[in-house]
Every structure is written in structure tokens, then in C-alpha cells.
UniProtKB/TrEMBL annotation:
Belongs to the short-chain dehydrogenases/reductases (SDR) family. Keywords: Oxidoreductase. InterPro entries: NAD(P)-bd_dom_sf, Sc_DH/Rdtase_CS, SDR_fam. NCBIfam families: PRK07825.1. This is Putative oxidoreductase EphD. GO terms for molecular function: oxidoreductase activity, acting on the CH-OH group of donors, NAD or NADP as acceptor. Pfam families: adh_short (PF00106). Its EC number is 1.-.-.-. It comes from the Bacteria.
């Protein structure tokens, strides 16, 4: 296990952190002394879970709204401090064949899963690059490297997130800002509940994906694939750590 002593005191922003993988990651990082800011379109979810008071900042955020996102990050920096890590985690995964998908839903999937990540990346880099430090983490999916039937638009969004993130990493190599992607397997969250895992594959728990994200922040790894086969969780690291 890699040491995680460098997490304490870091200001970490997590989009879509009101539940699922985002909330589990927030709790895991907080236990290690990180200062957590959560933004989510669902304003009530964290409050209802009784954990809102535990975090440094919790506020409404729509990742598809440039003004809302920019203002949210400004507020975090005012209240908590300069952002060390942004985790672009918010996402949706409606299932079904694309020909049956209403056009408005097709656009919404791409708006949240892809545009929201691109927007968050731009806003984070604008703050981090002048400081020559920081870590941008985009949550993709193993669906971004495979072709899961019934998820064509979702798959497209995650393939695009991986391409976008890999390109940014090349563009800003040596800048002091690490740029990473996480590819979770099917995970037991509200989002993952509509999909059935193939026989050997077992859905991961959100805490298991959170543990991989914690390791990624500690090591500044470029990419990690989280898989669970026959009940065994494993993290396959794609690329080397970044300076
Ligand atoms: P989840 O549904 O439990 O949580 C997603 C959160 O995003 C929700 O709290 C939701 O309110 C929020 N959100 C949705 N639209 C938003 C918006 N416009 N602005 C801000 N917040 C918004 O889902 P999860 O399973 O925890 O998924 C988190 C990420 O992990 C997603 O990007 C998802 O694609 C990815 N992922 C999930 C799985 C899985 O099987 N659960 C597998 C691979 C990747």
C-alpha cells in the first residue's frame, strides 16, 4: 500500500459528490485530513445523509453551467483555500438503445458527462497553471475503452473524456499540474443499479473505487483502471506518476 501522508491539508473539490463514488471519495479523503468541497446539482442529498456539516464546503453546482461552476470554485477558494485537486466526477448513465433515446436526453448525457468535464478542466487549469501545482482528475469508466450494449451515448461520452484527458496531459506535461483519469468498473451506486454485470465481473463498492482515487492523489498516477473479477478488486495502473 502506498503511503498517503501527503493528503492531509489538501483542498479537494468533488463534483457530483452528494452520493455514490463522489461521496465515498470525499469521506475517504477527509479521514486522511483533506479539506473537502462538494458541489452537486442535488442540493438535498448530502444534507439528508447527515454528512454536510462534516465537509468544509457544500453547495449547489450544475457542471453544465459555466457561471455556476466558476462561481462555485471562487467560493471554495475564498472559504477553504486554493484548490489542490479537482475531481470531475458528476455523471449520468441512462440506459437504452440510442434510436429510442429522446434527443434532449442524448444532449443531456453529453452535456454532463463530457462538456461538464471539459468545462471543469478549463476552470481548474486556469487556477492551477499559474501556481505550477495542482491535480485534475477526470472520472471516466471502463466503458470508455469498451463497447457496452445499451449505453452507446454514455460510452461515447466516456471514450471522449479519456481522449480529452490524455490530450491535456500531453499539453501540460511539465507544468506542475498532474492530469489523470480513473476508469471504474461497474459500481454499486444509484447510477450503476440499472446495469447487470457479466458473469465473472462483480460490481465494485464505491469505497473500493474511492480507495483507488485516494492512491491516485497520493501518487499522481496518470491513469488507473479499477476492476473486480470473481470478487477480487484490483487497480491496474496505466501510466507513470507525473511530476
Ligand atoms: P451517482 O448517481 O451515485 O452520483 C452521481 C452524482 O452526480 C449525483 O449525486 C448527481 O446528483 C450528480 N450530478 C448529476 N448531474 C449533475 C450536474 N449537472 N452537476 C452536478 N452534479 C450532477 O453515480 P456514481 O456511480 O457515483 O458515478 C460517479 C461517476 O463515476 C460518474 O462520472 C460515472 O459515470 C462514473 N462511473 C460510474 C460507474 C458505476 O457503475 N456506478 C462505473 C464507471 C464510472
Amino acid at each position: 500500500m502506498t503511503k498517503v501522508s501527503n493528503i492531509s491539508g489538501k483542498v479537494v473539490v468533488i463534483t457530483g459528490g452528494a452520493r455514490g463514488i463522489g461521496l465515498s471519495t470525499a469521506k475517504a479523503l477527509q479521514r486522511l485530513g483533506a479539506k473537502i468541497a462538494i458541489g452537486d446539482i442535488d442540493e438535498t442529498a448530502v444534507k439528508e445523509s447527515g454528512t454536510a456539516a462534516d465537509f468544509e464546503h457544500y453547495g449547489p453546482l450544475d457542471v453544465t453551467d459555466q457561471r455556476s461552476f466558476d462561481a462555485f470554485l471562487d467560493e471554495v477558494e475564498r472559504q477553504v483555500g486554493p484548490i489542490d485537486v479537482l475531481i470531475n466526477n458528476a455523471g449520468i448513465m441512462p440506459t437504452g438503445r440510442v434510436i429510442d433515446e429522446p434527443d434532449a436526453l442524448t444532449r443531456r448525457i453529453l452535456d454532463i458527462n463530457l462538456y461538464g468535464v471539459i468545462l471543469g478542466s478549463k476552470l481548474a487549469l486556469a487556477r492551477m497553471l499559474p501556481r505550477h501545482r495542482g491535480h485534475l482528475i477526470n472520472i471516466a469508466s471502463l466503458a470508455g475503452e469498451t463497447h457496452v450494449p445499451g449505453l452507446a451515448t454514455y460510452n461515447a461520452s466516456k471514450h471522449a473524456v479519456l481522449g480529452f484527458t490524455d490530450t491535456l496531459r500531453e499539453e501540460y506535461r511539465g507544468s506542475g499540474v498532474a492530469i489523470s483519469s480513473v476508469l471504474p468498473t461497474l459500481t454499486n451506486t444509484d447510477l450503476g443499479s440499472g446495469v447487470h454485470a457479466p458473469k465473472m465481473l462483480r460490481a465494485a463498492e464505491p469505497e473500493e473505487v474511492a480507495a483507488a482515487i485516494v492512491q491516485m492523489i497520493a501518487t499522481r498516477r496518470s491513469k488507473v483502471r479499477v476492476t473486480k473479477v470473481a470478487g477480487v478488486i484490483s487497480q491496474i495502473v496505466g501510466l507513470l506518476p507525473q511530476a
